[in-house]
Design goal:
Layout (H helix, E strand, L loop, with lengths): L1 E6 L4 H8 L8 E7 L5 H8 L4 E3 L9 H10 L4 E4 L8 H6 L4 E5 L14 H9 L4 E8 L9 E8 L6 H24 L3 E4 L2 E4 L1
Parallel strand pairs: 1-2, 1-4, 2-3, 4-5
Antiparallel strand pairs: 5-6, 6-7, 8-9
Helix pairs in contact: 1-6, 5-6
The site of 5-O-phosphono-beta-D-ribofuranosylamine has 16 residues, from helix 1, strand 5 and helix 6.
């Protein structure tokens, strides 16, 4: 299965996909895309000889139309958003229905939606005095963090002293469940039935 990974920053989830033994013979990462002209995640891609493309209006970046054509040219089967902070153009969302997944660092539908990314999420969870947090992998639709949930894993945070501690616990879970979901999809074991995703 050919995948494209969309990033905006550090790239630890991209790295988890690259390093996943389970995925080695199941997927090919054809390209890494970012709204940034450069970011640490691009360095990880380049180190692994994976082509990188910037998306946007600046010189050398791909416009939305060119992005769509590039995805078709690369014969992408699955788009993985791993820390990508922009909305995916509607044309791509509709053409790649149930073929775009996102990793969110909380247990959706709680602590999701516009502006809820990175440390904003963990600060909100900490301030809410939540006793569990976790990560969610979901399909993408037209709205932020609203798509069908595919996988979640929770972690106890009743004894944490800071939002940073939550971030660290949740990131470990992200690195587990994102490759897990990609594997299941590559094996054809995820089905959408109505408003739910089920494993076959
Ligand atoms: C992760 O926490 C992910 O849940 C969120 O953005 C962060 C990306 O981290 N969507 P990285 O760039 O994969 O390290």
């Amino acid at each position: 299965m050919n995948i494209a990974v969309f990033v905006s920053g550090r790239g630890s989830n991209l790295n988890a996909i690259i390093e996943s033994e389970d995925l080695k013979n199941l997927i090919s990462i054809k390209a890494v895309f970012s709204d940034k002209s450069d970011c640490p995640a691009f360095e990880i891609a380049k180190k692994n000889s994976i082509p990188t493309f910037s998306i946007g209006k600046t010189e050398g970046s791909l416009s939305s139309d060119k992005l769509f054509s590039k995805l078709i040219e690369l014969e992408i089967d699955l788009i993985v958003l791993a820390g990508y902070l922009k909305l995916i153009p509607g044309e791509i969302v509709s053409k790649f229905k149930h073929r775009i997944i996102n990793i969110h660092p909380a247990l959706l539908p709680s602590f999701g939606g516009k502006g809820m990314y990175g440390m904003n999420v963990h600060k909100a969870v900490f301030e809410a005095s939540s006793k569990v947090s976790g990560a969610t992998v979901h399909f993408i639709d037209e709205e932020y963090d609203k798509g069908i949930i595919i996988a979640q894993k929770s972690v106890d945070i009743s004894d944490v002293q800071s939002a940073e501690e939550i971030a660290s616990k949740v990131l470990k879970i992200e690195h587990e469940i994102l490759p897990f979901v990609i594997k299941k999809i590559a094996e054809g074991k995820v089905k959408v039935e109505g408003s739910r995703a089920v494993y076959t």
